[in-house]
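Box S1 | Example of a co-folding query
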Amino acid sequence: MSPPEPAPVDGGAFRAFMAGWATGVSVVTARAGGRDAGLTVNAFLSVSLDPPSVLVSLTRDVDTLPVIESSRAFAVSFLAADQRALSERFARAVPAAEKFRGLPVHRGPSGIALPDGTLGAAECRVVSIAPLYDHVLVAAEVVRLEAGRDAPPLLFFRSAYGEPDPDGRLRLPPPGRKSGRRTRRSPGRRRGAPL
Ligand SMILES: Cc1cc2nc3c(=O)[nH]c(=O)nc-3n(C[C@H](O)[C@H](O)[C@H](O)COP(=O)(O)O)c2cc1C
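Box S1 (continued) | Returned holo structure for flavin mononucleotide
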């Protein structure tokens, strides 16, 4: 007799499990029709060395996705520990113009806006966009790298940011601490929130 099917994993339980996976934090930016767009991303990984390629997982309804789809390009900038405000700015569910208002940026050859003061950035050419469940996997080849500051990284762990203490040592959130902003919507990734 075949073993009984395990009960489906609950979304909340999965979110709590994923909160135990410590990640860095990045801002993914794109540009189309003369307009900048961007969001905070921690579902990011390197795919291959030859060619250098990366992958991001985006919720289907983020505003930056159609900009990436039409331009077939994006940039990813790694945030430093003292750039939590930048992470929060790009995680907000507000029009892109508001996210870029007054923000110090520079532009690479692609014309994509790259926030100043990060740990580094990669400009990428999209090679595939694959919807999967409630997300879209965007794979891209890295076409240009830019070194940035030599500083501690911004970390995300237990649904909260790792903070640098005055000596520059990174303090991770203690067990049970929650700081994710509550916003609206679908049972998957809520707008403005990481998995
Ligand atoms: C730390 C952190 C990590 C996040 N990671 C992702 C991610 O990997 N993919 C995603 O689609 N949204 C992620 N989000 C949520 C988006 O940044 C958020 O929904 C944003 O408002 C989308 O902006 P847009 O609609 O202008 O594109 C993250 C949020 C935070 C705070």
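The longest strand covers residues 120-132. The radius of gyration is 17 Å.
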